[in-house]
Design a protein that fits this description.
By secondary structure, this protein is mainly β. It is built from no helices and 11 strands.
């Protein structure tokens, strides 16, 4: 059974940083696209970032325009984990952040974590 478990959320002031982690179990996702999505209250879930290994130690990463230059997504294949380093956080980054595996399409994935709350105070 595949499980994705996020950790690292919390409360931070604007301008601060947080690092989210996602531990995958039940399967390895070595050639799969993994990513982060978020959902703010009253809004639809939206894409944040994704990463896919395209060969050797070469990765393809993609980011939403709203987080480019501030967030960095990375993977550790040995540990089967996914991370999201979030810097220069803004109040509008407040949301529940979800880890996803086997990401496809615009906002779809085969596997989802339970989510972790990130709150950025002004």
């Amino acid at each position: 059974q595949v499980q994705l478990v996020e950790s690292g959320g919390g409360l931070v002031q604007a301008g601060g940083s947080l690092r989210l982690s996602c531990a995958a179990s039940g399967r390895t996702f070595s050639t799969s696209t993994m990513g982060w999505f978020r959902q703010a209250p009253g809004k639809e879930r939206e894409f944040v970032a994704s990463v896919r290994r395209i060969g050797g130690s070469t990765y393809y990463t993609d980011y939403a325009d709203s987080v480019k230059g501030r967030f960095t997504v990375s993977r550790d294949h040995a540990k089967n984990t996914l991370s999201l380093q979030m810097n220069s956080l803004k109040p509008e980054d407040t949301a529940v952040y979800y880890c996803a595996a086997d990401v496809y399409g615009t906002n779809r994935a085969a596997y989802w974590g339970q989510g972790t709350q990130v709150t950025v105070s002004s």
